Amino acid sequence: MLLSEEPATLIHHTIKNFNIGPDKQAVSRVSESLSTLEQARQLRISEAESALRRLSRQLGTLSSQHDDLVAAHSPADHASKIARLDTQKFRTAKAASDAEVETERLAQQAADLSARLHELELQGVEGGDDARRRDPVDDEVLLRLKVYRSLGIDIERDERDAEWNRAVVRNDRKGDVHVVNMDKKFSRYFYANYFWSTL
């Protein structure tokens, strides 16, 4: 009979029928994984604690430096320094603005003198008598220069080839001054449009 066999034999056969080997291996793998995770967790905790201690030391150092700076800082001196720098800034800006206005005035004066010199050169050494006898082409050039100057445009000749190669366009309404180097590769129509756009 079955019950007449030894209990150890029965238990051994029962265990063999359940086939618990894979389960034991799975439990062993889970235990190893848990052990590995625990080690990694402890390592991360150790690194975090070390970083926290380092940051705490830095915080203490920075707090000490901040306290020293606050103790050494005088709000009255700071306000006085800011007021002095603001005053200096406004004075510098005013001086720059005055210099710019004076530069424009001198540039206009120089242009007027240059145009007057050109007129005198066209009139010749003998003045008015010679002016009446000069070439009609010169009269036309002089008239053009006067018209240009009345519009705020000063035309300059190149000393080497006596060609018109430079123009200074002033817009008193906007306070702008444009210097244009004229090139033969652009047409007169192009420069006329440009001059009108800046006036």
Q: Could you give a short description of this structure?
A:
The chain has 6 helices and 3 strands, in the order αααααβββα.
Q: Helices and strands in order, then pairings?
A:
Elements: H1 7-18, H2 21-72, H3 75-123, H4 128-132, H5 136-150, E1 153-157, E2 164-171, E3 176-181, H6 188-198
Antiparallel strand pairs: 1-2, 2-3
Helix pairs in contact: 3-5
Subcellular location: Cytoplasm, Cytoskeleton, Microtubule organizing center; Nucleus; Chromosome, Centromere, Kinetochore
Main location: cytoplasm
Coiled coil: 96-123
Note down, in words, how this protein is organized:
Acts as a component of the essential kinetochore-associated NDC80 complex, which is required for chromosome segregation and spindle checkpoint activity. Belongs to the SPC24 family. By secondary structure, the chain is mostly helical. The protein has a domain at 106-198. The protein has helices at 7-18, 21-72, 75-123, 128-132, 136-150, 188-198, and strands at 153-157, 164-171, 176-181. A three-stranded antiparallel β-sheet has the order 1-2-3. The radius of gyration is 48 Å and the shape is elongated.
Q: Briefly note the structural class of the backbone.
A: mainly alpha
The end-to-end distance, rounded to whole angstroms, is 126 Å
> Helix count, per DSSP?
6
The 3D shape can be described as: elongated
Low-confidence stretches at least 5 residues in length (pLDDT < 50)? none
Helix content: over 70%
Q: What is the makeup of the main sheet?
A: 3 strands, antiparallel
Q: Radius of gyration, Cα only, in angstroms?
A: 48 Å
Number of DSSP E strands: 3
H and E string: HHHHHEEEH
Function: Acts as a component of the essential kinetochore-associated NDC80 complex, which is required for chromosome segregation and spindle checkpoint activity.
Pfam family, one: Spc24
Subcellular location: Cytoplasm, Cytoskeleton, Microtubule organizing center; Nucleus; Chromosome, Centromere, Kinetochore
InterPro entries: Ndc80_Spc24 (IPR013252), Spc24_Fungi_globular_sf (IPR038066)
